[in-house]
Automatic annotation (TrEMBL):
Protein name: Cystatin domain-containing protein
SUPFAM superfamilies per record: Cystatin/monellin
Cross-referenced Pfam families: Cystatin
Organism of provenance: Elysia chlorotica (Eastern emerald elysia)
Keywords: Disulfide bond, Protease inhibitor, Signal, Thiol protease inhibitor
Residues of the Cystatin domain: 20-109, 125-236
GO CC, any one term: vesicle
Keyword match Signal: yes
Length: 236
């Protein structure tokens, strides 16, 4: 009898496991008005709004979609979204269980992740050599302010970061102007993103220190509706 009970228990556990992960990933096509896609866009906006980034993101395209049978259907989505200043690629997972009701019927399984996207056709055309410039130059400071704002929006952190030291800045004529920032120390502050826009110069630095070192380029074209673009960014 004990052996029979053990076997029954094992079969039950195996059945639960198969319900939790019953299939591999399959490519699917989802239209931009698909309910799962629309739910994902809303979830992304809600998530970043809670981090203090209230700028609305609107859907441009469904870059890729994969489905997986997981006690329902789990959709792995890569969406192209746009804000007033940039285009982003966002990864998000949506779990659909239409037989349930309320919030359990459809939900995201983990925090979305968005990064700025620059099309190859938008890459700056190099027309001149680069020269070292003073980091205190007003135009450099404007580019740095834009980059700081963009990096803060992209990082999944409760607190703002602010630049405290710059190793080097170079400028280059590139159908406009490109500023190459290297070794920028971005320190965490005590200012919460949930408090909305703040003057970073008034924010105290976090203790103990939490600093990331970043390299990035800022491309400036004064004639564009959005004159600044952040490219080639890397932080560690």
């Amino acid at each position: 009898m004990l052996g029979l009970l053990s076997a029954t228990l094992l079969l039950s556990l195996a059945g639960q496991a198969s319900m939790q992960l019953a299939g591999g990933l399959s490519d699917v096509k989802l239209a931009i008005d698909d309910p799962n896609v629309q739910f994902a866009v809303t979830a992304i906006n809600t998530y970043y709004s809670k981090l203090g980034d209230a700028e609305a993101r609107t859907l441009v395209d469904v870059v890729s979609a994969q489905s997986q049978v997981v006690a329902g259907t789990l959709y792995h989505l890569v969406l192209k979204l746009k804000t007033s200043s940039q285009v982003e690629l966002c990864k998000v997972e949506v779990w659909s269980r239409p037989w349930l009701s309320g919030d359990e019927a459809i939900q995201v399984t983990k925090d979305p992740s968005c990064k700025m996207h620059i099309d190859a056709t938008q890459a700056p055309k190099i027309t001149g050599g680069s020269v070292v410039v003073d980091s205190g130059n007003p135009e450099v400071q404007k580019a740095l302010m834009f980059a700081t704002d963009s990096l803060n929006k992209m990082e999944n952190s409760l607190y703002y970061r602010t630049p405290v030291k710059i190793e080097e800045v170079k400028s280059q004529v590139v159908s406009g102007m490109a500023y190459h920032f290297r070794g920028v120390q971005m320190a965490a502050t005590t200012c919460l993103k949930s408090s909305g826009a703040v003057d970073l110069s008034s924010c105290a630095l976090a203790s103990p220190a939490d600093t990331r070192v970043c390299d990035f380029d800022v491309w400036w074209q004064s004639w564009e509706a959005v004159p600044y673009k952040l490219t080639n960014y890397k932080c560690q």
